[in-house]
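Hi D.,

Good news: the full-assembly prediction came through. Inputs first.
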Amino acid sequence: MGNADLRSLAAIADVSFDDVSGVVAVDAHNWLYRYLTTTVKFTSDRVYTTAGGDEVANLVGIVQGLPKFFEHGLTPVFVFDGGVTELKDAEVSERRARREKAEERRQAAEERGDAVEAARLEARTQRLTSVIHETSRGLLDRLDVPIVEAPAEGEAQCAYMNRVGDVDYSGSEDYDTLLFGGPYTLRQLTSSGDPELMDLNATLDEHDITYEQLVDIGMLCGTDFNEGVPGIGPKTALKEVKEHGDLFGVLDARDAHIDFADRIRELFFDPPTTDDYDVDTDLSPDVDAARAYVTDEWEVPAGEVDRGFDRIEEALTQTGLDDWT
Amino acid sequence: MFKAIVSASTLRDALDSVSVLVDECKLRLEEDELAIRAVDPANVGMVDLALEAAAFESYEADGGVIGVNLNRLEDIVGMANSGDLVQLELDEETRKLHIQIEELSYTLALIDPDSIREEPDIPDLDLPAEIVLEGAQIGRGITAADMVSDHIRLRVDTDAEAFFIEAEGDTDDVDLKLERDDLIDLQSGPADSLFSLDYLKDMNKAIPSDAEVRVELGEEFPVKLHYEFGEGMGQVTYMLAPRIQSD
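Then the structure:
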């Protein structure tokens, strides 16, 4: 993953929640994953496990994470990943291998009686089960939060919706929205402090490059879809792309090779996206139904989610004076 | 250019009415009045204040705008005794405000007005009901409502010709019924809205209990609360956005 590399090139500014408003297309998998890991780490598994053995830590996570949007006048739209893009198979199998390895170490830690290490590793092995998929949608539906089903990469769909102007920001902790051409990305939406705003055009201006060149730099450093060229970091990639014009110029000059380079580039420039979505931001949530869904149907103790639901209710029932201007 | 002398109590009343909503604001130093308009960060409550030149012992201004930290300014003015006069003078060179209270002088650094949240547009409201009553009457309703709930319902019953302040708690309820005879004036019309007590409590703190308060109300619309201070030469209008009524 080229995350650290991209970060060093991206124009990122700390912003205050007061300065941002509008609609943010959130990469649901990425967002949920963060809340799953923290919930699993800090909460007893009895809280989020039903009598039938289904784990629904996601419900606790969603109720914790949503108030932040509403309290700051942001409407989230959750974009779920579709099928895995074929080229990403290598990445997926690598993740799976990492997870299996973590699982082995977790069992070893558990046997040693190292509870902290076991919990930490358990978080890493957490994946989105079909129950998590189903219940996340079920809860968001009751709160009338829009859901979009991406044909493939959620981040690509977020970036697309931002580019065509249907949303004001993408929301992701990763940096790939930049390579997918998303103009504005809000980061750290799952952290406790203020968010970061990543600006595509400011990034391009700062380095005096085109969007296509940014993708080429990303690919030289390595992306979800390809290994980078050994020995090339962001500074070198930037310098050489500017010198040779594009990815292929750099590869020729170095006599290097990236598998499927053409196709991967196209995937960033023109990823599978859909126009089949409806971003209705005038939410009419049924908070009581949402509470009942989480606490009765999925057996999460009310005490775990009461505060979060109260905050959601409070934020969504208070109107603003700007509704009348 | 700005140079003014004003009684400490008048200035305090003016600042208090704004500081319940925001920490910093712009002062518009018009030729004929000092004006402040501010909205809280959540865009729920707004204050629109004007203090006429006549409310000052002396007043000279030419339309400039300065930004102030309200808490700081309130603290300084709080140093004055009630009968004291406060002298204010803007130093254009250093962009600081000189404040003189008796023998105490204070130089207040100003805030760049551009860094302060923009002054809001005033909502365009045509509210069907108007209730005029004493500050103490509203205060009583708000204090009682606060004992049972976070929200307060204000409504006019057009048949009964009465103004109701109500709150519904988990177990306890509060009802304050003010009939036409209990009020200074009532212009009856369909009005029923729910508001956050957090905001209303704060606004109520600034409203003098003997002030005549004009309440303009609609159905699920913002409420306007208007009162005067400084012997009628200062005017404050609060606006508060409603909560959505669920049932």
